[in-house]
Structures are given as C-alpha cells and as structure tokens.
Automatic annotation (TrEMBL):
Keywords: Metal-binding
One Pfam family here: Cupin_2
Gene3D superfamilies, per the entry: Jelly Rolls (2.60.120.10)
Protein name: Cupin domain-containing protein
Organism per entry: Metallosphaera hakonensis JCM 8857 = DSM 7519
Domain of life according to the entry: Archaea
UniProt-recorded Gene Ontology molecular function terms: metal ion binding
InterPro entries: Cupin_2 (IPR013096), GPI/OXD (IPR051610), RmlC-like_jellyroll (IPR014710), RmlC_Cupin_sf (IPR011051)
Domain named Cupin type-2: residues: 43-108
Length: 125
C-alpha cells in the first residue's frame, strides 16, 4: 500500500487486556497491514484508569496529548502531562496510571520478531 487515509474516530477501539489494566482502550491507527515498519496507536484512559506494569521487546515512544498521568518505568515514577513524551526501550518494565480527567496519548512502536507482552506483578504507585 502506498498510502492510507482515515479518521481516528473511524478506527475500532478495544479494551487493553494487560493484567492490572482498567478503563484503558487502544486504537491501532497505522500498522504493518498498511505496509509500515512501525505502528502508531492511540490510547484513551478513563479517569482513574491504568495500564498494568508489563514488559515487551518492542521500543515505544509515548506522546501525551490530553490529561495527566504517572508513568512507572523500572522503579521510578514520572508525572507527565499534555505536551510531554517518553521513550521506553524494549525489555524495560513500565505501566501507566491516569489522574482525574480523561487521558489520551499516541504510542509509536517498532515490530520486533516477538510482540509478546509480559505482565509484571507490580503496581504503578
């Protein structure tokens, strides 16, 4: 495919199923199905929502476009808000916890051979 045009609202939204997640939803905007070597995903977290601690082999860049959240990376916590971004390398444990308003962020990832997500039995404070 040479190009793809769409609207975010037209892309199906599904619940994030990582253990420890709640009120979190994902949309796969650009994927290898479009011929890309990377993926662009949009996440939406309800107030109080979270994405449980986990690891995976792919790298990701997260760009906050609405709201505020805590991002737990290894054993550190970072407070991010609209306009902030974070790069997380493959194999690094991390999770997200939303604050008191709707949270939206875009996440860009690569496609390693193994896309398995491994839950980590820890909580993001």
């Amino acid at each position: 495919m040479d190009f793809h045009v769409s609207r975010i609202v037209a892309v199906p939204k599904s619940e994030v199923l990582i253990k420890g997640s709640k009120g979190a939803f994902i949309q796969w905007l650009v994927t290898k199905d479009h011929g890309a070597h990377y993926a662009v995903r949009k996440f939406s977290l309800e107030p109080g929502g979270s994405i449980g601690m986990h690891t995976h082999k792919y790298q990701e860049t997260v760009i906050i476009t609405k709201g505020k959240c805590s991002v737990c990376v290894n054993n550190q916590v970072y407070e991010l808000e609209e306009g902030d971004f974070i790069f997380i390398n493959g194999g690094v444990k991390h999770g997200f916890k939303n604050k008191d308003e709707a949270l939206e962020f875009f996440c860009i990832i690569d496609y390693p051979d193994d896309m398995t997500i491994v839950p980590v039995d820890e909580k993001c404070p």
